[in-house]
Structure formats: structure tokens, C-alpha cells
Amino acid sequence: MRRPRARVLQAAAVVVVAIVVSAQAWPVERPPAPLPDRPVAFPPYEIRTLDNGLQVLVVPHHEQPAVSFRLLIKAGAAQEPSDRPGVASVVAGLLAQGTTTRSAGEIATEIDSAGGFISAGSGNELSNVSGAVVKDRTDLALGLAADLVEHPAFAPEEIDRQRRQVLSALQVNYDDPDYLANLVFDRLVFGDHPYGRPTTPESVSRITRDDLVAYHRTWFVPNNALLAIVGDLTVDEAFAAARRAFGGWQAREVPVVRAPAPPAPVRRLVVVDRPGSAQTEIRVGHLGVARTHPDYVALDLLIRILGGEGANRLFGVLRSEHALTYGASADLNTYKASGSFVAETDTRTEATVEALRLMVDEVWRLQREPVDAAELEGAERFLSGNFPLTIETPAAIAEQVLVNLFYGIDLREIETYRERVNRVSPDDIQRVARAFLQPDHLAIVLVGDAAAFVPQLRAAGFDEFERIPIADLDLNAPSLRRSAPGAGGARD
After folding, report:
1. At what angle do helices 87-94 and 156-173 cross, to 10 degrees?
2. pLDDT in tens, 147-204
3. What is the 8-class DSSP label of residue 440?
4. Which of 116, 164, 174, 222 has the fewest CB within 10 Å, making it most exposed?
5. Which of 445, 462, 432 is nearest to 306 (CA)?
6. pLDDT band at residue 34, thresholds of 50, 70 and 90?
7. What is the number of H-type helices and E-type strands within the chain?
């Protein structure tokens, strides 16, 4: 009986020794350092303005016999009438659904027969029409795009169909706690400013054909647009094609919209109560800066240290140290007039307050303590190393140039981007953190089962909060409640 036991012990000893030897042999040095930055040759491009004011960007690219284009209209949700949120997206959705000369079916057949595609969309500040086609069908594609933006039919039956689609999408989105958290956060940060104005079923139902026609007539003009053409054309061929397609587009005066300034950051915690939710969506942040802010690069690095690529303290604390989530991030969103900073995660319901407390503490720590040089270097190396990928294709180059043209940023900043990133020092990060971050004026949104975590909020230092049952949530109301305060939910 003892011999087998001895053999087992001997075998166990061998395994232990093997494990120890294996552990000693395992590499203990850090991963190799990234390769040094290589020079990036920014491909040539040319910009000209047509007689009607349309700015045209051309990026020649002769590897394939194809041409792509992107037409930007400098108008989006920010230019909508204040009582008609959703007009911009409905207009964009209808562009390819029929013009005064083509039906929706004819548009689809025409672009499909040319082996290409065409699409339209809109955002906060821009609407766009994009497409691609083989080289010898360039005139067809650009002519079709011109017809879409100049002569949309806005047929009543298409408007009704588009409205039904938008309402159906909203119904689905309103069941998504992630979507709701983002929407409520934007309302807290931007208030009545267009950046925070939500598209709701009520606003979409009010939109008329006259609203769509008026919006289109006001903003869809060549002197309020940018066109990029990329592909297997010479510069002169591309500009000639742009002139043939868009040269007859009539310029008109573009109004100046002066939106109310976003409200100053104030501390506000809103709990959107979804009974039975297994997880809580968490958003933490406040008002940010415009894209043209002189400290944009340093602020971008600051927020990446908090929750972005190359650093991400939030992920380290919430995921690696405390196992509270599968992911956490922070973003700096910048627009023409303003912007926002938002940190976000989701966590199991019972861990809501612990995760929230850790997130807020990390914002405070960034303001109070200098960042480690290694953290900054990691974020800088990511941005610097990733930059060549953002101009890897002619279409990506065109996108970079279009963005700078839209914001009025010096085009030379594209080529000096990596140098400006690598010049940011820990002192710069500390300076912008103290000037920019306002941890005592954070907008906080929690979407989840309130009964499971609200009792813990005060003990964690969150003394004031608003609890709004999801059935009473009204995104158009400053209070975010359908009913008067006290009737549909209490302010704690």
C-alpha cells in the first residue's frame, strides 16, 4: 500500500519541480517597445471652388479603375427648427427615395447597373451623400448625386413610409438602456442646445412635407457644401466631372443660426428606473470644448488616459482590479460650437454604486495628481502610431481634409499631427486637467433597476438624485418627467 503512495508523491514532486522550472523559464521582461515612427508621405490633393461656391477636393488614386465621392452639406440636427427634431434625418432618408425626375426604383436600378452604390445620411452638424462607381461611370454617379441633393421629390407616400421607419426604430431604441443613457446624458449636458435635443415619436409625428421642403431649400445649396472625389482620374478630369454634375446648382444665401449656449456644468444625478434590469448603464461627464479649441490635442490625450486606447485607467480599475465590468471607456466629443466629455460603462445591478464611485474618483484623481509619464507615452504612441492608418487610403485622406475644411482648421495640421501629439508633456496634461475637468459638477446618468442600488447612493456620497420611472421619462421636458415633479417620481 505504501509503494504506490510513494510513487504518487514522487510524481507529484516531479510535477511541482516542472512547474517551478517552467515558471522560472517564463519570460519576465516587458513587451518590446514599439517601433519608432516612420515618416508619413501625405499624398497630393487639390482643392478648387466652383463658380457657385461648391468647394471640391480631388485625391487622385490610380491603383484601381474606380471613383468614390462624398458630398457634405453643412447642416444637420443643429440646423433643425427647435420644435421639429428629426427633420434632418428624415430629409436625408428621403434623398434616395425619389427625385422630380426619377423614382426610388429607377435610382436603385441606375446605380446598380453601373456596379456602384449611393447612400445618404445625417448627423449633428452634417448631412451627406456618398457613393462609388467604376471609373467610366463617374458622370452617371455624380449626376445622380446632384439630382438627389437638388431635386428631391418628397413624395407624400415616401414621407409616410420614412416616418413609419423612424418611429419603428425609435420604439426599438427606447427599449435599449444603452441608447437611453446616451440620450439622457446629452440632455443633461447640452440642455436646450441643439446638440442635446432628442428626436422623439412626438416630434417625428409633427413633421410635415412643408418642413422638409423648407429645410432642404435653406441648407442644400452649393455654397454650403463640400465635395470630395477620390479615384482613377486626373485632377483636371475630376474637376471637370464635378463641374458637369454640379455646375448648374444655384447658390443662395445661407442663414446664420445662433443657438443658445449650452448650460454651464452643474452636478445632477438622474436615475432612470427600469425594474428588473440585470445591469446598469452608467454615464459620467460634463460639457466639453469645440473642435477648434487650442488645447484639443492635450485634452484628447487627457481623456484617453482616463478611458481610451493606449492607457485607460477606467478599464484597469473597473475591470482588472475589481471585476465589475467587461469594458469601460471615456470619449471627448467635439463639435463646431461645443462638445462633451463622457465616461461610460455597464455593470451588474448590485455593483452600480461601487462602479460609479470608482469612476468619479478617477476623474478627481486626474485633476489632483500628475499623470505618469509612461501613461502619457502609451496614449501618445497609440495616436502617433495609429495616424498612418487614418490616411492609409485616398478616401481616408479625403475624409481628413473634409473634416478640417468643415471646421476651418489649417490643413497643415494634418501633416503635423504626430509632432503635436508627441510634444504634449505631463505638465500640459496637468494644466488642461485642472482647467477642464469639473468633478464636482458632473452629469451622471444611471439606467437600471433603481430599487436595487438607490439605497446605497447616499452612503457613497451621492446625496441628491432624481429617480424617474421609465414610463414617466419625457426627453423633451427640462425635468425629464412626463408629469409635474412629485407626481411621477421623487427628487431625493
Report:
1. 120
2. 999 999 999 999 999 999 999 999 999 999 999 999 999 999 999 899 999 999 999 9
3. G
4. 164
5. 432
6. low
7. 18, 12
**Residue 420: Cβ within 10 Å count:** 14
Closest-CA residue to 335 (of 152, 153, 196): 196
Cell numbers for 486, please give them: 412629485
Cα 466 from Cα 485, distance rounded (Å): 10
Give the span between the Cα atoms of 301 and 299, in whole angstroms: 5
- The Cα 299–Cα 294 span in angstroms is 10
Question: Per-residue pLDDT averaged across 219-246, rounded?
Answer: 97
- Interatomic CA distance for residues 242 and 214, integer angstroms: 26
Q: Say how many Å lie between the first and final Cα of the chain, rounded.
A: 71
Distance CA 327, CA 26 (A): 29
pLDDT tens-digit map of 425-442: 999 999 999 999 999 999
- Stated pTM of the model: 0.88
Q: pLDDT per residue over 278-310, tens digit each? A: 999 999 999 999 999 999 999 999 999 999 998
- Tell me which amino acid residue 422 is: N
CA–CA gap between residue 173 and residue 432 (Å, rounded) = 36
Half-sphere exposure of residue 330: CA atoms within 13 angstroms, side-chain side: 31
330 near 314, Cβ under 8 Å?
yes
Cα 429 to chain centroid distance, Å, stands at 23
Residues 6+ apart with CB under 8 A from 230: 58, 59, 61, 67, 68, 69, 394, 395, 397, 398
Mean pLDDT of 106-110: 96
* Coil, strand or helix at 430: helix
Compute φ and ψ for 18, nearest 5 degrees.
-60, -40
Considering only CA atoms, which of 160, 163, 174 is closest in space to residue 204? 163
Give tens-digit pLDDT for 432-479: 999 999 999 999 999 999 999 999 999 999 999 999 999 999 998 989
What cell was used for 472? 414617466
CB contact at 8 A, 265 and 341: no
**What backbone torsions phi and psi does residue 375 show, to the nearest 5 degrees?**
-65, -45
Q: Using an 8 Å Cβ cutoff, are 184 and 273 in contact? A: no
Residues constituting the chain: 492
Residue 292: closest CA among 410, 189, 432, 196: 410
Distance CA 452, CA 468 (A): 14
